[in-house]
Amino acid sequence: MRSPLAPAIRLLQAVSRDSWYRGSIIILTFLFYTSYHLSRKPLSVVKSQLHRNCSEIPNPPANISENDTTWCSWAPFDQSNYKELLGSLDTSFLVAYAIGMFISGIFGERLPLRYYLSGGMVISGVLTAFLGLGYYWNIHALWYYILFQILNGLAQTTGWPSVVACMGNWFGKGKRGFIMGIWNSHTAVGNILGSLIAGAFVSTAWGLSFIVPGIIIGLFGVICFFFLVEYPEDVGCTPPDQTDRANGELENDQGMNSSTENIYKSQAAADLQESVGPQELVEHPRAISFWGALRIPGVVEFSLCLLFSKLVSYTFLYWLPLYIANVAHFDPKKAGDMSTLFDAGGILGGILAGAISDYTGGQAITCSIMLILTAPMLFIYNQFGQTAVSTTVAMLIICGMLVNGPYSLITTAVSADLGTHESLHGNAKALSTVTAIIDGSGSIGAALGPTLASVLSSKGWNYVFYMLIAADLLACLFLARLVYKEIKKLCPCFQKARGNSLTLKHSNSGTSE
Prior knowledge:
By secondary structure, the chain is mostly helical. Helix content is about 75%, strand content about 0%. Helix 4 (about 80-110) runs parallel beside helix 6 (about 140-155) and helix 18 packs antiparallel against helix 19 (about 460-475). The chain starts with 6 loop residues before the first helix and ends with a helix.
């Protein structure tokens, strides 16, 4: 007598072939972009080690003068203008990233994504490792670190347009804010892992804080080369637009019973898989021009909004550990570990923003509400956030939620919706270019934020937070027109008033005739 089929095997058989492939794409792209952020986070942790108050270090070497408070710092960051020098490292990376992002989306649509993404990851890993080798080669020239920051900024532009375009190829439109919010947590997960890995080596050999993340992203680049599938048609899976259309047709057929419906679905899937074989060369749609993508409704508004919201997010990304170390007087490792709470809050904020936008259908409204709440919360955190450890933990999580919620929603679900806008008539090839335009605009803000922070922090941290609050309010302002349109669409009273106005106009014209 045979035993019944094992439960795990029955579960495996219940999952369709399409679902297996789509699940693997979610996991792979999540891990790939996690490694991107993991490799760009270490600098923010190492900053507090490059310049330290050496008078606080017990048992200094015998040949060190008591008046020498910078003997333990790393030249050239042992000077009084160290904040400006550290800021120049941020600026060089982010300016290169912002410039390269506008070009990267165009290349991403015209080159095989698998080659483009895997090559960018391997190159980025090598360049990140070179920053750490400066420690072992005893390099103290500022140009060395700026050069590899610029090159790494260009290399890292291969990541975001590629992973978003790949997700767009495999998943259709619909209520995807919640799913994309979960998927976009790779940014915060990468920041957290990058902080923890860098913090593990920062006090002993800070070169490893760069070398280890560089090795990790390089290995993921190799995995990308061997496993990434760009289009569902390439492996005989159902394209998302055809799946949605077939499901819509089945739902509209009310006379079909359950068993007949299942047979019809299976037959439709089989016919589609037979018509698109894995070995056939599939003709993909042509890429859209830069100006054509810019004319898509909503692209300009969300791009400008992301410019200022990403300014706030990246200022925290690059300066939060140093701020905590200076204000709360934590050592570099503890400050790096504490800063991960901001990223943990960012995970919750991205998921929350996606869920709310799915439920309400108002992406601009969701972003605006979170941006409005962010402004007073930043002020409260600066004034009272370091009074106690429990207060610091709570405020960092709340600020992370509010700051990164709109940033996450715009860079994922909003970009994907705009990249597959109805005005494109089904041409999803615009997705990479639209994503590059929106994220490239955000990268301009990402470059401005840390640069301004390096200048303003020398005058006092209060000025940094005033700048962040102003940027947050400007981000909200640029969404005003879209918020008004969404309110009109969602609120029945607007629709009723508009209907009465049209009726009255028609009546008056009829009377005059």
